[in-house]
Amino acid sequence: MALDIRIRKVKVLQGRAKIEAEKQNLNPDDLVIVTTSVNSLPEYHIEKIDGDPVSYLLKRAKD
Amino acid sequence: MSNPSVQPREIILVLCHSFFHDAFRMEKPLSPAVYKNWMSSRFVANLIIERQAELPESSNFAVTSKQVFDSFALKFHGDEPSTKQKETVEILHNSIYIIKGSAIGNLSIDDSVFVICDTLYSLSNFEPILITNIPKKMEKAEEFYHRKDTSAKIPFPIYSAVQAELFLRGRFPELCSLVDKRLKDSVIQFRF
């Protein structure tokens, strides 16, 4: 299980989470699920939310 | 003349269990009235996530009690949740401030949200708005206040999701436009 998982807007990300988002060419207003895991140094996995977040989360939980 | 030392109150949404159950239900309601509440609940839930996603992590736009959230989580994922279901609940937990204090933990689901609203209204610069899709919640709130003082009035508004959507569209027009745009691109298309 991840250390932390939350939805953030790309434009508020900082540091290495921001670098991860930049690798995916995301827009500042895109919503992303940021999953933080710890492997000595924290690692940030960025997952872009397509469409509205509620529908995305429901579909994600069902898949 | 306005008092310059008085700060405008900041809107905070206090969520009842009926709101969660409507916002995160998968099946289409058959009745048009329920359908409207379902769509508005989903809109407001999207707005909460949208706004919280850009607020500092110490600030909150929506709040509820632990018993309300736990009731929703159990109904959402059942006794044996999958990893993705647990993650969904954890994501929502991080988008909404959950009050866990022992003083509130022993209260009923209804009383817990009334106490949160009253405390936010009385002790802070917040403008709490209770969102519920249960029509009798207003009567329950009156009963709650009249237990100690029969002349007491409910100091905060109680809105259905439909009323809350209208109110929030007036207060947060730009964010609401963004929510509308995302809803048009929804990954789940419901047809009625």
Give a brief rundown of this model.
By secondary structure, chain A is an alpha+beta fold.
Helix and strand topology:
The complex is a heterodimer of chains A (63) and B (192).
Chain A (H helix, E strand, L loop, with lengths): L3 E6 L5 H9 L7 E9 L1 E8 L4 H10 L1
Antiparallel strand pairs in A: 1-2, 2-3
Chain B lengths: L9 E6 L1 H7 L8 H21 L9 E4 H12 L5 H11 L3 E3 L2 H4 L3 H15 L2 E6 L5 H10 L11 E2 L1 H11 L1 H12 L8
Parallel strand pairs in B: 1-2, 1-4, 2-3, 4-5
Helix pairs in contact in B: 1-2, 2-8, 2-9, 3-4
Defining key terms:
heterodimer; A: 63 residues; alpha+beta; 2 helices; 30% helix; 37% strand; B: 192 residues; alpha/beta; Rossmann fold; five-stranded parallel sheet
Would you write up a description of this structure?
Chain A is α+β, with helices and mostly antiparallel strands. Chain A has one domain (4-62). Chain A contains 2 helices and 3 strands, in the order βαββα. In chain A, 37% of the residues are buried. With 192 residues, chain B is α/β, with parallel strands linked by helices. Chain B is built from 9 helices and 5 strands. Chain B has helices spanning 17-23, 32-52, 66-77, 83-93, 102-105, 109-123, 137-146, 161-171, 173-184, and strands spanning 10-15, 62-65, 97-99, 126-131, 158-159. The mean pLDDT of chain B is 92. Classes of the chains: A alpha+beta (63), B alpha/beta (192). The A-B interface holds A 1-2, 4-9, 11-12, 29, 31, 33, 50-63 and B 23-24, 26, 42, 45-46, 49-50, 52-54, 76-77, 82-88, 90-92, 94-95, 178-179, 182-183, 185-188.
